[in-house]
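worker-03 picked up job from queue 'complexes'. Input manifest follows; two sequence lines, order preserved.
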Amino acid sequence: MNDIRKSGRGTHKQGIITKTTRFACCACYLVGLFSLATGAHAQSSNLSKSTGTKSGGSVPDISGIWMSTPPRRVGGPNDSLLDPPDKRKPDSATVVPFLPEAEGRYKSANEADSPSTRCLPPAIPALMLAPIYPMAILQTPGQVVVIHEFMNTVRWIYTDGQGHPKDLDPTWFGNSVGKWEGDTLVVDTIGFNNKSWLDLHGMTHSDELHTVERFHRRGAVLEYSITIEDPKTFSRPWTVHMDYDSKPDWKIAEYLCAENNKDAK
Amino acid sequence: MKGKKLISFLIVSVSLLIWIPAFAHHGTATYDLQHEVTVEGVVKDFQWASPHIWLYVTVTNNKGEIEEWGGETGAPASLARRGWTSHLFKPGDKVKMSGHATKDGTRVMMITKIQTTDGKEF
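worker-03 finished. Artifact:
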């Protein structure tokens, strides 16, 4: 008998006792969503101020543990969902403004080729919009650090006014600089490599990817948006919105992807 | 109007639920999401590790042959928040494991539910 623990995939077809409908599957997932939602009570919290600049200026405090609360909405007043019902991929015709060639690549992409199947990190949009893992935000004078449970990844956002370096070597998370516009932290990121995916379904990008993120705390809710621009992939910039709930009692758990990854090719 | 809103809410909720497990590490394209299968047997191994927890079950099929099924589910980090622990299952436990099997017919599934003989469901 094959030891499928070694490959994660066996080679035979039998042993099926019962088959149920997709409805049963959805119902099971529904239980899962409400299980997640059960622990998502927003705490009451006043906007506190934190010393977040090197000059000692007072800025809003967005530190803490945050858990995303989908849906992920695309657009403006008439938002549409990034994940429409019964579709594995976003509706590229109405939601994601692909250039024709990029849309073709997206539609023909094989999910098994996703860098994250090899435990490489997702691009910032996918990382920030991950719906089932929390993130921790730490604020210090001159920098904001975002620690994601998903893939044990860390992002550094420089808020000391240094700006982007003139000559950037491309990296997975690029170079992020932030500034406060009123009570909103605006983060500008460039310098990405072209290796990551913007989702798990094949949304690739070029090294001209540019993102602008906005973090705004409203009590126990962190309002977040990310504008994605890449003239080699999209016909125009597009924006995804999503909120996070404060989770003051949570801890960021260990997630070592390479420990038991059976999907690596 | 209220009815329409409720229907929209349910549709959105279901769609999100379908998407949520998919995001965990890889997509779901290898699995047949239109159908669910259930196998009943004895736990051979329970691997509490990232990126996915795996449960291996030894099953006797209708022909009396021994098969081994593997099922993957979420990461320890997320399932621990839902009450799972590293000793939730141990070798020898009798379980029913349900999920979406791979499209290529291998004995692997994306788990949707695990039932134990004492009536508990995970």
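worker-03 released lock.
The two ends of chain B are 36 Å apart (CA to CA).
Confidence is low (pLDDT under 50) at residues 1-23 of chain B.
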